[in-house]
C-alpha cells in the first residue's frame, strides 16, 4: 500500500528552525548532557505573582465557560485603553481589539483575513517583508496565499530598510508591509523619525498605486528597550493610522509565554471591519482563549509596570554584558542590541574553517549544528531569517548573567579551536 498523502499546504510548509533547534537542545539537556542554550526567546523570569493570582481567583470562581470570540468586553477595554494611552492609537475602542491565543495566532488569523487566494489569472498579492526577519512571518503569509517580496537589510544600517527600498518594493499588487520593532532576530529598533519616514512612503504609495495597502506592526517587544531608542507605534501617525494593524501580546514583557495571550487591533472604520472578519475566522478556529486568563491580562496591563521595569533593567544589563563579551571575540561583527533580548553576530569570518571533529563550516546551520554536537552550545542559525541571516547566528540573552558568561566562554573556546 502506498503512503497516504497529507495536504501540500502542510507537507511543503517550512518548519520553524528556532523551535527545532530549541527542542533538540532541550532533549539533550533531558538526557543529562551539559548543554548551554541560547535559543528560545523566552524570559527566564517567572510570571508576576499578581497575574497568577488573578487567574487562580477566576478559575476558583468558576470562570471556565465559553467567552465571546474576540474576548470579554472588560479585557478588550483594558487593551484599547492601553493602546490609546501608551501607543497613541487614538481611534481605538474595545470593538477595535481582538484577543488571540498568542501573537503568532493573531498573525495567522489576520494574514488569512488580509490575503486572498488568487482566482483565474489573478496575480498573487504581495507581502513586503524586510530580511532578516522572524522565521514565521513569511511562511504564514504564504500559507494565506501571499507572495513574499524581500527587502534586504544588513548590519551596516542596523538591519533597517530605507524609505527608498520600501518605495521600490511597493507595487499595485502590494497588500501588506510587515514591520517589527524591536526586531527578532536582529535586536535593533527603528527610531520615531525612521518610522515616520516609512509611514510617509506607505501613505504616498497607497494613494498612488496600492489603495488596499496595510501595515502590520508586530510590537511584541515594545517594552524591552535597552537604551538609546524609544519605542514608537507607527499606527499613531495620522496618515497611516487607519491602515495599520498592531499586533502585541503579553509573552515577552510579562514573562507569560505559556499563557498564550496575544491581541491585534486596527483603528477607525477599517479596524471595525477587520476585527469583524477576524471574529468570523477565529470563530471557526479557536473561538475564545482560555476563560480564566482574561483577568490575568487585565492585571498585567494595569498593575505590573514595576515588574516589567525590573525585568527590562535586567535585560539592559545582560545586553551590555553580551555585547562586551562578543566584542572581545575576533572576527565577529555585532550591531549593538537596542531592543528585545537578541544579539545577531555575523560569524561568516569562520566559514571555511574545520572543527576539531573534522567538519568544514559552510553556513550558519553547519556552524550551529557543529557547535551543539561538539561543544554543547546551542544558538539559532540565521538561514531561515532570510537575507544576510545566513551569515549570522541568533543569541537569546533571556537568561542570567552567569549563564551568559559561561556560554560566551564556551563560544570563544569553540571559535578558537577552528582551523
Description:
- This protein is of the alpha/beta class.
- It is built from 13 helices and twelve strands.
- The strands form three sheets. The protein has a seven-stranded mixed beta sheet with strand order 2-8-7-6-5-3-4, with helices on both faces. The protein has a three-stranded antiparallel beta sheet with strand order 9-12-11.
- Strand 5, helix 8 and strand 6 form a beta-alpha-beta unit.
- The mean pLDDT is 95.
- The chain has helices at 8-11, 17-30, 49-60, 73-87, 103-114, 137-143, 163-169, 192-208, 268-283, 294-303, 305-327, 364-375, 401-416, and strands at 36-37, 97-100, 126-131, 147-152, 174-180, 214-218, 244-249, 262-266, 342-343, 377-378, 380-381, 393-396.
> How many H/I helical runs?
13
Mind telling me which CATH architecture of the largest domain this is? 3-Layer(aba) Sandwich
Query: What is the ordering of alpha helices and beta strands?
Result: HHEHHEHEHEHEHEEEHHHEHEEEH
Helix content: 25-40%
Query: What integer is the average pLDDT?
Result: 95
Report the CATH C-level class of the largest domain: Alpha Beta
CATH superfamily of the largest domain: Type I PLP-dependent aspartate aminotransferase-like (Major domain)
Overall radius of gyration: 22 Å
Distance between the termini: 50 Å
Strand order of the largest sheet: 2-8-7-6-5-3-4
What's the main sheet like? 7 strands, mixed
The class by helix and strand makeup works out as alpha/beta
Instruction: Report the count of strand segments.
Output: 12
Morphology call:
globular
- Report the CATH topology name of the largest domain: Aspartate Aminotransferase, domain 2
Amino acid at each position: 500500500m502506498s503512503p497516504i498523502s497529507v495536504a501540500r499546504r502542510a507537507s511543503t510548509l517550512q518548519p520553524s528552525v528556532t523551535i527545532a533547534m530549541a527542542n533538540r537542545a532541550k532533549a539533550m539537556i533531558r538526557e543529562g548532557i551539559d548543554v548551554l542554550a541560547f535559543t528560545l526567546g523566552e524570559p527566564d523570569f517567572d510570571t508576576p505573582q499578581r497575574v497568577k493570582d488573578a487567574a487562580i481567583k477566576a478559575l476558583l470562581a468558576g470562570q471556565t465557560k465559553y467567552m465571546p470570540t474576540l474576548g470579554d468586553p472588560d479585557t478588550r477595554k483594558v487593551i484599547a485603553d492601553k493602546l490609546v494611552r501608551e501607543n497613541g492609537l487614538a481611534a481605538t475602542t474595545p470593538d477595535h481589539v481582538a484577543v488571540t491565543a498568542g501573537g503568532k495566532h493573531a498573525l495567522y488569523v489576520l494574514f488569512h483575513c488580509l490575503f486572498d487566494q488568487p482566482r483565474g489569472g489573478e496575480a498573487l498579492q504581495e507581502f513586503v517583508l524586510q530580511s532578516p526577519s522572524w522565521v514565521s512571518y513569511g511562511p504564514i503569509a504564504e500559507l494565506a496565499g501571499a507572495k513574499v517580496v524581500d527587502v534586504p537589510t544588513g548590519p551596516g544600517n542596523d538591519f533597517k530598510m530605507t524609505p527608498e527600498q520600501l518605495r521600490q518594493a511597493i507595487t499595485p499588487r502590494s497588500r501588506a508591509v510587515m514591520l517589527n520593532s524591536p526586531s527578532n532576530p536582529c535586536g535593533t529598533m527603528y527610531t520615531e523619525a525612521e518610522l515616520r519616514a516609512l509611514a510617509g512612503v506607505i501613505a504616498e504609495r497607497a494613494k498612488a498605486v496600492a489603495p488596499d495597502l496595510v501595515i502590520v506592526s508586530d510590537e511584541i517587544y515594545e517594552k524591552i528597550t535597552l537604551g538609546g531608542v524609544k519605542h514608537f507605534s507607527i499606527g499613531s501617525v495620522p496618515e497611516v493610522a487607519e491602515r495599520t494593524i498592531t499586533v502585541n501580546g503579553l509573552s515577552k514583557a510579562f514573562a507569560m509565554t505559556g499563557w498564550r495571550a496575544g491581541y491585534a487591533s486596527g483603528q477607525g472604520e477599517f479596524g471595525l471591519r477587520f476585527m469583524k472578519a477576524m471574529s468570523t475566522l477565529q470563530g471557526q478556529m479557536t473561538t475564545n482563549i482560555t476563560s480564566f486568563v482574561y483577568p490575568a491580562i487585565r492585571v498585567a496591563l494595569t498593575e505590573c509596570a514595576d515588574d516589567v521595569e525590573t525585568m527590562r533593567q535586567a535585560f539592559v544589563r545582560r545586553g551590555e554584558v553580551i555585547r562586551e563579551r562578543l566584542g572581545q571575540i575576533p572576527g565577529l561583527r555585532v550591531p549593538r542590541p537596542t531592543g528585545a533580548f537578541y544579539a545577531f553576530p555575523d560569524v561568516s569570518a569562520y566559514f571555511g574553517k574545520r572543527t576539531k571533529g573534522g567538519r568544514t563550516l559552510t553556513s550558519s546551520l553547519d556552524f550551529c549544528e557543529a557547535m551543539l554536537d561538539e561543544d554543547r552550545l546551542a544558538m539559532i542559525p540565521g538561514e531561515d531569517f532570510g537575507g544576510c541571516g545566513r551569515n549570522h547566528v541568533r543569541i537569546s540573552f533571556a537568561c542570567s548573567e552567569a549563564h551568559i558568561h559561561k556560554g560566551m566562554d564556551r563560544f570563544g573556546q569553540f571559535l578558537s579551536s577552528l582551523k
